[in-house]
Write a structure and sequence with these properties.
This protein is mainly α. The protein has 13 helices and no strands. The longest helix is centred in the N-terminal third of the chain and has 35 residues. The model has no long low-confidence stretch (mean pLDDT 88).
Length: 292
């Protein structure tokens, strides 16, 4: 009996170090942030008092927070369609066994291996209005150029293009794995029934990729609401507040301008609630069992 109990405890002993780190660096900061959101905590303040919902009520009057919410929502919506479509079309092309398939898959995935700082600095140079290659070639073609990151009408779109370029290779691999999991017999049966490539794509490929769509959709929306690195490197939230996002505003509130940890914690929990709600809605709308 002792050996049986010892054997039953062995898996938990292996899990214990990882669980301890998870609790120390994930669960505890999460709960402590919730506690701080109900206080007037600030850097340099030895003692802080409980203020109830004051930090959350202050967010209702914070116009910059409202702007950051709108910008973040716009980024999430505007970047979702390219993220769903472009990697899928590329995966479909690679799945047909074209030449250099392995090389192309690695080449497309390579940008995702770069850090957000590397990606941001690369696109900062590409879009530079003076020495950037993008404007240089546009001038050579006789197309009017502009300062893409300094123009409020194009700055957010430039960040969206940067993000799509960065993560397309990752989602391409996910789509490709889903495509390769679809039985070839279904396409053969559809061909015997006279279905062409487009009909097979709409009737077989897309329905059977529902779990992949759900994964891509949920992970991308969660990542979109947490966007920070690209904005910080490329625009610092400018010009004006045209690209200010929630995490950018949270960072400045907590660590740059005012060091208001209580207010920043309240922002973080509002963002967490929004992400949770959108994730649950997506699971509810897109859930379903794939049947072959």
């Amino acid at each position: 009996m002792g050996l049986v109990r010892r054997g039953a405890l062995t898996p938990y002993l292996f899990l214990a170090p990882g669980l301890a780190l998870f609790v120390a660096f994930r669960v505890y900061p999460l709960l402590d942030g919730l506690r701080l959101s109900f206080t007037n905590a600030r850097l340099g303040r030895a003692q802080y008092a409980f203020v109830g919902l004051a930090n959350y009520e202050r967010l209702l009057e914070d116009t910059r927070f409202h702007t950051s919410l709108v910008n973040t929502a716009f980024y999430a919506v505007a970047s979702t369609l390219p993220i769903l479509a472009i990697p899928l079309l590329m995966a479909v092309a690679l799945n047909r066994g074209i030449a250099l398939r392995t090389f192309l898959r690695s080449a497309f995935f390579f940008p995702f291996t770069l850090s957000v700082v590397t990606v941001g600095l690369t696109w900062l140079w590409l879009l530079d209005p003076v020495v950037g290659p993008f404007n240089y070639y546009l001038k050579a073609l006789g197309i009017p150029v502009r300062s893409w990151l300094a123009d409020p009408t194009t700055a957010m779109w430039a960040i969206i293009v940067t993000s799509v370029w960065w993560v397309t290779g990752y989602y391409l691999v996910i789509y490709l794995a889903g495509l390769q999991d679809i039985p070839r017999e279904l396409y053969e049966a559809a061909a015997l029934d006279g279905a062409g490539g487009a009909r097979a794509f709409w009737a077989i490929t897309l329905p059977l990729l529902r779990p992949v769509f759900l994964f891509v959709f949920v992970t991308h929306v969660i990542g979109s609401f947490q966007i920070f690195g690209q904005v910080f490197i490329l625009t610092q939230g400018g010009p004006g507040d045209a690209t200010r996002t929630v995490v950018q505003h949270l960072y400045e509130t907590a660590f740059q301008n005012f060091f208001h940890f209580g207010s920043a914690s309240a922002m973080a929990w509002v963002l967490f609630a929004l992400i949770l709600v959108f994730s649950l809605l997506q699971f509810r709308l897109l859930r379903g069992h794939t049947q072959y």
